[in-house]
Design a protein that fits this description.
Blueprint: H1 2-23, E1 38-42, E2 51-54, E3 73-77, E4 81-87, E5 91-97, E6 102-104, E7 114-118, E8 136-141, E9 145-151, E10 169-172, E11 177-181, E12 190-192, E13 195-198, E14 201-203, E15 208-210, E16 221-225, H2 235-238
Antiparallel strand pairs: 1-2, 1-3, 3-6, 4-5, 4-7, 8-9, 8-10, 10-15, 11-14, 11-16, 12-13
């Protein structure tokens, strides 16, 4: 009987010691302070260290927060997909975080520079939604990602080293036909193997596209024209 009592007291004592140790840990130390709905970044693995709560409508850059290339883990405390990017303006490599997920960043640890929340995982790989209504938008990366410039006006010549020969995708959110040219002042032409020479590249109102050769990174000017009934040709762009 004495031995059993001794064993029992040892077990009780061990459990008491273990419980006192567990309760001494800070409550919710990992992935703490991430209110719903939001996407939160942490400077340590497993949600440890300093944290940053990102706004739901953020799409441009984390640069102003001083958090460039500092995030190691993330908590997506929302019903959307979390999308984080290596470069500003949704550019560069992408990592997606499912709704409700808490995890270390497997691809972009210490590389996150911009973010957005999207209705689906596939929407993390596009950025056309940034183009305001009534404008023609050009982008420095495919699928509407990277640097963006939007305008409702014609441009007779893109700035060298910035947009000239740097356009990789287009969103035409205007009500006009967008006509692009591979030279300034709405001139030039493209030669395509087995195809007629193209003097203009058209993007109809409401359309978006990622450019393929020979048009990729070749635009130097554009104009907006009222849609022509003969939309199969570039006649409206040249008049």
């Amino acid at each position: 009987m004495k031995i059993n009592m001794l064993r029992g007291s040892l077990v009780v004592g061990a459990l008491a010691l273990l419980c006192s140790f567990l309760f001494a840990l800070p409550a919710n130390a990992d992935y703490d302070n991430c209110e719903q709905p939001s996407l939160c970044l942490y400077q340590g693995a497993g949600g440890a260290g300093e944290s940053l709560r990102l706004p739901l409508d953020g799409t441009a850059t984390i640069t102003g927060s001083g958090w460039d290339d500092k995030a190691v883990s993330a908590y997506n405390n929302s019903h959307f997909w979390g999308c984080v990017y290596a470069n500003t303006y949704l550019g560069g490599a992408v990592e997606t975080i499912p709704p409700g997920a808490r995890s270390d960043l497997k691809t972009l640890g210490l590389q996150v520079t911009s973010h957005k929340l999207a209705p689906s995982q596939g929407a993390c790989f596009t950025g056309y939604e940034r183009c305001p209504a009534g404008q023609l938008c050009i982008f420095k990366e495919p699928n509407g990602r990277g640097g963006m410039y939007g305008t409702p006006n014609d441009h007779a010549g893109y700035l060298a080293g910035v947009w000239a020969n740097n356009v990789r995708s287009v969103m035409n959110h205007s009500e006009k036909t967008a006509c692009f040219f591979n030279d300034a002042s709405w001139a030039g032409e493209w030669a395509q193997t087995g195809q007629p020479v193209a003097k203009a590249y058209k993007v109809n109102a409401g359309d978006s596209t990622s450019l393929m050769a020979p048009f990729d990174k070749s635009f130097q000017s554009h104009r907006l024209r009222t849609p022509d009934a003969d939309s199969a040709t570039d006649k409206e762009c040249l008049s």
